[in-house]
Design brief:
The protein is α+β, with helices and mostly antiparallel strands and 658 residues long. The protein has 4 domains: 90 residues, Alpha-Beta Complex (DNA Primase, Chain A), CATH 3.90.580; 137 residues, DNA primase, catalytic core, N-terminal domain (DNA primase DNAg catalytic core, N-terminal domain, Alpha-Beta Complex), CATH 3.90.980.10; 77 residues, no CATH class; 184 residues, no CATH class. The protein has 29 helices and 17 strands. The chain has a 5-stranded mixed β-sheet, with helices on both faces. Strands 1-2-3-4 form a 4-stranded antiparallel β-sheet. A hairpin with a 4-residue loop joins β2 and β3. The longest helix has 30 residues. It is globular and about 90 Å long. The relative contact order is 0.05. This is DNA primase. Its cofactor is Zn(2+). It is an enzyme of class 2 (transferase).
Length: 658
């Protein structure tokens, strides 16, 4: 069976080799650099203890320095699964979500045609480069000189020129013996609608060859020399070689530069890419005249885990940034996101380089903001939240945006980040303004490097109003139970992973155990325990499981019973969350006494206390140390005392609802 042209290229583009290989090996975390796609592990093809098996994720190849096995994703599946070439392709296609093509007896003929089309494109590149050096290209050369492009740079980027002639390229290619269907098939000419001969696609334009990741010329981008031309930039039409939504300008060279450690920068146009690359930012690409598509995002993440979108500091640039966010949200994964470097108002990267130099551009790149910050600004820019209805509308819009994130862990972290920003926004009103006052959030294009992440509104458990020694001791025991259950049954982490990530561990070694657990639980109990011993030490595990409170927990006495384990785990986490949540609410309310309306604060504290009550296993537990609040809520005496102190500061009339 023959595969259609481009199928294997698309398959390799969609798959990460480290993901394919990662099913069979354990990566050496100390030696590997995931951000650079530089991964190391013990070789799966021969027995060894050292990590001599190297995967270059960006180039898509592996090599073992011990047994000298090498290849790509297809050869790896063939060797490890003991299957043939086509079966390996079918396995990988299934993982990549690609439909295997039906048998095509003309596949070889199509491959031959693609080769011919590439040859025609290379002939066009040479012709246009020659035209730039003729008298017809004088104005184009002057334009490039005004853009500060040297002759050497023009040659490096193979920039050319299409004279203002209807059949200049057509006649040149026909003289070379090129068939009509190949010229038309390459998108270099268009058929006449009036029955005449076909005419050139590009006329009176500066031309930038567009090459695929393998360096083959597949299309052109043309800038009009006539200021009255309706389309300032024009790309080749879609052809057998060129899919605009799945291509990037400067893809191959940028991938190589990113592999050498440069930050991957995404600019808007050809001239920005050229200017940035000439200034030393070689890992720069651009989409081709459209908003960044999902396919282009996947290509970018194949090059680097966190590309930096460098957009113009005008309304169009900001609007483009927002479109990128909408496309990216459903595709986000752990370690796979975007950052945004917004240029000063009215400027593009080329302007920044000319006026301020590479150092200023590097400063903007270094100050690129996370996507969540830009999402927040989109929903709040220039708006006034002076009523409950407007704040509710903000909440609705933010929930809708976050709901588009498919990865539950990422969605949880976005929700927490937005919650922190929202609390900071409404908490930071001027004193005396009250909850009904206006909170306007301005949008200031070009001041991206001045944006600082909003500090999270968190309160340390240890410094909380209610963090007594007894409370801390009880919480440390709850932490120990949670960690012990998950170490024995790491498969249960998937049910509580986002909640575990948010827990702030205070017990000795608990934070370190939590980090190892979150990272290695998917590898199974045996590997997890071994990793804990290697990273933290056997003593930490021994102390954990020696605790009487841990040993008598139902989940530890019946670790094989899924229902008991899951119920115990959820109960302990819920109690820990509720206890700390109430203390945070009381502490926050104490800070905001002057700005929160009395009734609102009373209601909020009551709700928090009610949540605390629901977390208790039964009212008989620790009955001697609990009392009943005015609303029927069961509270710890310390919690009741702190709440009473706050409520005492509210005027008596308002407290009674008068």
């Amino acid at each position: 069976m023959s595969l259609p042209p481009g199928f294997l290229d698309e398959l390799r583009n969609r798959l990460s080799l480290s993901q394919v290989v990662g099913r069979k090996v354990m990566w050496d975390q100390r030696k590997s650099n995931q951000a650079k796609g530089d991964m190391w592990a013990p070789c799966p093809f021969h027995q060894e203890k050292t990590a001599s098996f190297h995967v270059d994720d960006r180039k898509g190849y592996y090599y073992c320095f011990g047994c000298h096995q090498k290849g790509d994703a297809i050869s790896f599946v063939r060797e490890t699964e003991n299957v043939g070439f086509m079966e390996a392709v079918e396995i990988l296609a299934g993982e990549a979500g690609m439909q295997m093509p039906a048998r095509d007896p003309k596949a070889k003929e199509k491959a031959d045609r693609r080769t011919q089309l590439v040859e025609v494109m290379e002939m066009a590149v040479s012709h246009f480069r020659l035209m730039l050096k003729t008298g017809a290209g004088t104005a184009a050369r002057e334009y490039l000189a005004r853009r500060r492009l040297s002759d050497a740079a023009v040659d490096r980027w193979e920039i050319g020129f299409a004279p203002d002639a209807w059949q200049g390229l057509w006649d040149h290619l026909k003289d070379k013996g090129v068939a009509d269907d190949l010229i038309l098939g390459a998108g270099l000419a268009k058929p006449s609608t009036k029955g005449g001969q076909p005419y050139d696609t590009f006329r009176n334009r500066i031309l930038f060859p567009i090459r695929d990741a393998r360096g083959r010329a597949i299309a052109f981008g043309g800038r009009a020399m006539d200021p009255d031309e309706s389309a300032k930039y024009l790309n080749s039409p879609e052809t057998e070689l060129f899919d605009k939504g799945r291509s990037l300008y400067n893809h191959g060279p940028a991938r190589e530069a990113a592999g050498r450690g440069q930050s991957l920068v995404v600019a808007e146009g050809y001239m920005d890419v050229i200017a940035l690359s000439e200034a030393g930012f070689g890992a720069t690409v651009a989409p081709l005249g459209t908003a960044i598509t999902e396919d282009q995002l996947r290509l970018l993440w194949r090059i680097a885990p966190e590309p930096i979108i460098a957009l113009d500091g005008d309304k169009a640039g900001l609007a483009a940034a927002m479109r990128v966010i909408d496309n990216a949200l459903p595709l986000l994964e752990a370690g796979q996101s975007l950052r945004f470097a917004i240029m000063p108002e009215g400027k593009d990267p080329d302007d920044v380089l000319k006026e301020s130099g590479p150092a200023a551009m590097q400063a903007l790149i270094d100050a690129a903001i996370p996507m969540v910050d830009l999402l927040w600004r989109r929903e709040t820019e220039g708006k006034v939240f002076d009523s409950p209805e407007r704040r509710a509308a903000l909440d609705k819009d933010l929930r809708a945006a976050i709901a588009r994130i498919k990865d539950p862990s990422i969605r949880s972290h976005y929700g927490q980040a937005i919650k922190d920003k929202r609390w900071d926004l409404f908490r930071s009103r001027p004193k005396g303004q009250g909850a009904q006052g206006a909170s306007r959030v301005p949008w200031e294009p070009g001041k991206g490097r001045g944006w600082a992440p909003v500090p999270p509104v968190l309160h340390s458990t240890k410094s909380s109003l209610l963090a007594t020694a007894d409370d801390q001791a009880q919480e440390v025991l709850r932490e120990a139970v949670i960690l012990a259950i998950l170490i024995r049954r790491p498969d249960m982490l998937e049910h509580v992973e986002s909640r575990m990530e948010r827990l702030d561990m205070i017990g000795p070694d608990h934070g370190a155990l939590q980090r190892v657990l979150l990272r290695h639980a998917h590898e199974g109990a045996e590997v997890l325990e071994r990793t804990i011993i290697e990273r933290i030490g056997a003593v930490a595990l021994e102390k954990l499981f020696a605790l009487n409170h841990v040993r008598i927990t139902p989940a530890m006495r019946h670790p094989e019973d899924d229902e008991i384990v899951e119920a115990s785990l959820n109960e302990e986490i819920m109690k820990l969350e509720a206890a700390r949540g109430l203390r945070r609410e009381i502490a926050d309310a104490a800070q905001d006494m002057d700005t929160l309306p009395d009734e609102g604060m009373t209601w909020r504290l009551g709700q928090a206390a009610e949540a605390r009550n629901k977390a208790q296993r039964s009212q008989s537990e620790d009955k001697a140390t609990y009392e009943v609040a005015d609303n029927g809520t069961l509270m710890n005496r310390d919690e009741r005392d702190a709440l009473d102190k706050l409520l005492a500061q509210i005027s008596p009339d308002k407290k009674k609802g008068k």
